[in-house]
């Protein structure tokens, strides 16, 4: 049936996205490839949005669709797929929300006096560092921390949004598959 093929296609697409989210989140722990003290790492990394949200929660959905879907009857495949897609949707949204917060708030960095702080927090969007690259020189250590955070949080944000959309499509697809199969089996001879 068409809904089964769509479910498999979405599962295959979500698998590498989840892997990229996990890698991106792990890279945020090592700004510019450096190993820092735990207190010197941006706090929004500790919400594990790429590892837990866009990674594990979405990977479970795609892993199920690729490996165990044939063990169940079609209506139960679709129903279980809907439940797992809802879980994946929640993971994608979780990743997108915390990644956007990481982008807006900016990184934790040393401004030159040896003290790590968030120099860009509590700024209005009008004065946000994302729109004013000349303010990036405020952060002295770790080197390139602003670009590092912008790129990785942007990747996580994009992955979270894409995963949420794909999982929402799968919810619709699974419900259609469940209802149509139930309807067809009820009225068939």
- Residue fraction in strands: under 5%
**Integer count of domains:** 1
Gap between N and C termini: 19 Å
Please write the string of helix (H) and strand (E) elements.
HHHEEH
User: Could you tell me the number of beta strands?
Assistant: 2
Helix content: 55-70%
Q: What structural class should be given to the helix and strand makeup?
A: mainly alpha
Radius of gyration: 21 Å
As residue ranges, the low-confidence spans are: 185-189
Number of helices, counting only DSSP H or I runs of 4 residues or more: 4
Largest sheet: 2 strands, antiparallel
Average pLDDT works out at 85
Physical arrangement of strands within the biggest beta sheet: 1-2
The gross shape turns out to be: elongated
Molecular structure report:
The protein has 189 residues and is mainly alpha-helical. It has one domain. It is built from four helices and two strands. It has a two-stranded antiparallel ribbon. The protein starts with a helix and ends with a helix.
Descriptive key words:
63% helix, two-stranded antiparallel sheet, 2% strand, elongated, mainly alpha
Write a brief structural summary.
The chain has 189 residues and is mainly α. The protein is built from four helices and two strands. It has one domain.
Topology:
Blueprint: H1 2-27, H2 49-67, H3 74-105, E1 109-110, E2 116-117, H4 145-187
Antiparallel strand pairs: 1-2
Transmembrane segments: 12-30, 36-58, 79-104, 145-169
Family: Belongs to the L6 tetraspanin family.
Keywords: Membrane, Transmembrane, Transmembrane helix
